[in-house]
Amino acid sequence: MKHDSVYSNWDSLLNTAITENSMRETADILSDQEFSTLEIPAHYDKKIRNIIRHYRSRLWLKNLTSSGRKIASIILLLTGITFAFLMQFDQVRAACMNLFTRVFDRYVEYQYKNHSSSESRSVDLRLHYVPDGYQLAEDSRDEYEIHQSYQNEDGQRLTFTCMLKNATIHLDNERHTIHDVKIHDWDGEFYAANENNSEYLNMLIWENEFGVCILTSQCNEETMLKIAENIR
Q1: What is the per-residue pLDDT for 101?
Q2: What is the pLDDT of residue 102?
């Protein structure tokens, strides 16, 4: 019992000491009334307001960026779905291919390799039909290419070239509209000039058993196909 009384007195003294220490530590703390009447220096007030304004701006920008990402993701998803659906149609696929060609390639490149087993055979191709008024102005031929050029009284030229060996050809597609054609059983492409002048000519390119052939002139497509079909 004596020990219990001692411990009880000790606890009371300890609680009293803690209470007095806490009261001394909090004695310097302002009361609510004193705090409400406290005047903060102007430069401190300005600094605090700037911190609050900066925080609100960052929070607004973060929310705006998050919303923008969500909207962009939805738009990209809908665009992808729409594009995938449209690509099921042949016309759309062809239009997309033409678009990429026009935008990214100013020139179309043709690479020709002669796989003939008889490299030394003699080739004597000639134009057996030319429009009225055109006369032969140049005719050159060797083991690598055949070149013939015709000209009329107005100075308009019609040129035929057949490359018999390996060749790389670049044709301008920036000022031409391109579509596929047939010369007998051979596939070809017709380049229709978008501008009607002597600087930009119509072009016809195709490959046959002798090499790759190019025909250029101001003649229309029907006439140029007729000329190509009569080259032998």
Answers
A1: 42
A2: 45
206, 189 Cβ separation under 8 angstroms: yes
Calpha distance 162→206 (Å, rounded): 10
Buried b (16+ CB within 10 A) or exposed e, 22-37: eeeeeeeeeeeeeeee
Residue 183 identity: I
Q: Give the total residue count for the chain.
A: 232
In this structure, are residues 180 and 187 in contact, taking their beta carbons and an 8 Å threshold?
A: yes
Residue 99 has what pLDDT?
Answer: 46
- Residue 215 class from Cβ within 10 Å (0-12 exposed, 13-18 middle, 19+ buried)? buried
Distance CA 159, CA 4 (A): 125
- Mean pLDDT for back-to-back runs of 10 residues, the chain (232 residues): 57 71 62 65 78 87 87 88 78 56 63 63 86 94 92 93 85 85 91 79 90 93 96 90
Name 193's bridge partners: 176
Q: Tell me the C-alpha distance between 71 and 80, whole Å.
A: 14
Q: Which of 224, 219, 174, 178 is nearest to 196 (CA)?
A: 219
Looking at residue 116, its pLDDT comes to 61
pLDDT given for residue 103 in this prediction: 44
Give the pLDDT score at 138.
94
Distances in whole angstroms, Cα of residue 41 to Cα of each of 32, 48, 52: 19, 11, 17
Cα–Cα dist 153/75, whole Å = 60
What are the helix (H) ranges across the chain? 2-25, 32-36, 42-86, 90-104, 221-229
